[in-house]
Amino acid sequence: MGIEVVVEGLTKSFGKQTIWQDVTLTLPAGEVSVMLGPSGTGKTVFLKSLIGLLKPERGRVLIDGVDMVSSPERKLHEIRKLFGIVFQDGALFGSLNLFENIAFPLREHTNKNEPEIRRIVLEKMDLVGLAGTEGKLPGEISGGMRKRAGLARALVLDPQIILCDEPDSGLDPVRTAYLSQLLIDLNARIDATILIVTHNIQVASTVPDNIGMLFLRKLVTFGPREVLLTSEEPVVAQFLQGRKHGPIGMSEEKDQATIALEAADFDDEGLPPIVPQLKPSPGLPPRQAVERRRARVMGMLHELPYAAQQAILQSIRERR
């Protein structure tokens, strides 16, 4: 099973510019979570802070008892072996074929022999639908295939936590749908904790167990998917509906006078209906996270807004 990630009071700045402050959340073990936010809100910075590549000014990131903010590099090196990271562009070596790209972490971080490396690489390539493409160079395949190759490389060390930085970027809606299903299938197979950073509503509405959103240098919300998908928070509603009216502007947040002026001339049609969460493909085992999440969410149900409560109960009924 995946490992719980606990974030407490995390604050990150570059010089005088605060990226976000006092971010507190828990990524439940083995569940799939999404972090949403407009461009420029520090989502990738958040990922890098989780694995200790960037050092926040305040706060803690606790993984298996180790604080990724303050621990020495020796400890961080060991904990990072628990992670698999899928970069936005796949981050493949252009001069190496797919087999060599995917084998790279095994050769760098293990003492496995070549037959064992070959077995693992081919197994992971098959897992992401790339069987038979071992000899191709990154420049010879589509963007969607490069994303899947990056995912295969992230899996070769059998991570318990998988971080995906905008895995849908540059993909058309059909390939995005395939990728979304692949991530759910992956969770069903290996029960890893998964965090996906994205601003894609299709991914956010169909894939995760939990959703958070960064805006205005803070965490607007984080919790069960139904909480955000039924939220009446203006910035959340604007983002989910992809409309111009609301706090999010072209380059930065709007001032209150502009928001009030827009609101006077705007007929809010309400949030779109919640679509069912994706299920594993036929033939795969059920996701173990579903039952764990159900027990966890039912325990906090009375603390949630009424609309989220009703959506959660409806979701549970639909799964039975």
Topology at a glance:
Elements: E1 5-14, E2 17-27, E3 32-36, H1 43-50, E4 58-63, E5 66-67, H2 73-80, E6 83-86, H3 98-109, H4 114-127, H5 143-155, E7 161-165, H6 173-190, E8 193-197, H7 201-206, E9 210-215, E10 218-224, H8 225-229, H9 234-241, H10 256-264, H11 288-300, H12 306-319
Parallel strand pairs: 3-8, 3-9, 6-7, 7-8
Antiparallel strand pairs: 1-2, 1-4, 4-5, 9-10
Please tell me about this protein's structure.
The chain is of the alpha/beta class. The protein has two domains: 5-82 and 159-231 and 271-319, P-loop containing nucleotide triphosphate hydrolases (Rossmann fold); 237-270, no CATH class. Helix content is 40%, strand content 19%. The chain contains twelve helices and ten strands. The protein has helices at residues 43-50, 73-80, 98-109, 114-127, 143-155, 173-190, 201-206, 225-229, 234-241, 256-264, 288-300, 306-319; strands at residues 5-14, 17-27, 32-36, 58-63, 66-67, 83-86, 161-165, 193-197, 210-215, 218-224. Strands 6-7-8-3-9-10 form a six-stranded mixed sheet. The protein has a four-stranded antiparallel sheet with strand order 2-1-4-5, with helices on one face. The longest helix is centred in the middle third of the chain and has 18 residues, at 173-190. The chain is globular, with a radius of gyration of 20 Å. The two termini are 24 Å apart.
